[in-house]
Amino acid sequence: MFKSVTPFRQLARIYSSVLSATASLNRQQDTLAQLHQVALQSRAEAHDTSSNSSVQSAQMADRVADLSARLDTIAARPGIEGNRNVGHTWQDSAQLLASLRSELARTMPDNVALQGWNSYAQCDEDGMIRACLERLKGRAEMSGTFIEVGCGNGLENNTHQLLLDGYRGGWLDGSPRNIAFIAEHLGTLKSERLLVTEAFVTKETVRPLVAQFREHLDTADIDFFSFDLDGNDLHLMPLALEEIAPKIICVEYNGKFPPPTSLSMAYVGDHQWAEDDYYGATLQAWVDLFSGRYTLVSCNLSGVNAFFVRDDLVAAFKVYPVDQLYQPCRYWLVGNNGHRASMKWLKQKLAPQ
User: What are the pLDDT digits (tens) for 105-134?
Assistant: First the structure.
């Protein structure tokens, strides 16, 4: 069975679940502390009123006994004791992001990671993509197109926001469940603005799959190409680039290994991630692959996605050394836009006018 969720997405969601569980436990601990305070006050009130009314005192004693039993039940739940310092909160992540951006502004003031934010991306990619595209306007004829290979169910990817901004594009994913979700919530898998395809990407299928998007969009000069699969990405990218010539490419890298370590997993057509560190390719491996065609301009602050710009357009960016641009994995910097994501804005945007 094909796992459409990439290593980082799985780890990020696991971490997000831990944060949610921690928050729940913290709320329980707050409740526990409040109940203890109420119990103490109730005992004091029971003592003060005992001399005035034996009936009132008995009733108060019953309430105190019931409250104590509830406290014992809550306190006995696994994980309650000492949970206050488990994991990170969103506030912790926000503070860390602010600190990272402050250092980035000092050392690499022209790095587009400073302009990161998220609406539907995993982390800060939405802002970085917009910043990259804005820099190319006036330097190249923009086609207003994108292709995203590994789009998930559409609620968390790199190009949902581009559709809302008026771009046309293609989504591809290998999960029938994800594609069914998109079909259900958008009402269609093919429109003038968006073509959605379900397919497992291999060396044999990658070129025709990318070609169908090129034909649908009527251009090979794609503005933005997001490529995020199951670990075979580095082996499949050269084949994809035989069909299109994107201006900007975003790829996932294995952030465990900083430059100059150059590693990529061996190609396995039916590869499934074993939830360990053997996946994808390191940042240096991507830099080596793209040498002479695309140049690394930024990595997002979660240490997951790298942005490359076609060499004929890279003058729009200040190019920093690879080891300086590298960001290590920070799985806790998972995007949080406040409200649960939906397809409703996109369905409205794609509806015939």
Answer: 999 999 999 999 999 998 899 999 999 999
DSSP state of 266: P
pLDDT per position as a tens digit, 160-209: 999 999 999 999 999 999 999 999 999 999 999 999 999 999 999 999 99
**What confidence score (pLDDT) does residue 38 get?**
53
List the 194-198 sheet strands across, edge first.
194-198, 168-173, 145-149, 224-227, 248-252, 305-310, 294-299
Domain boundary among 23, 44, 75: 75
Amino acid identity at 29: Q
Tokens of 299: 């990595």
Count other Cβ atoms within 10 Å, centred on residue 52: 8
Q: Choose one of 50, 75, 100: the last residue of a domain.
A: 75
Distance CA 327, CA 325 (A): 6
Give the separation between CA 111 and CA 249, rounded to whole angstroms.
Answer: 16
Q: Which amino acid is at 305?
A: N
Q: Which helix (H) or strand (E) is 314 found in, with range? A: none
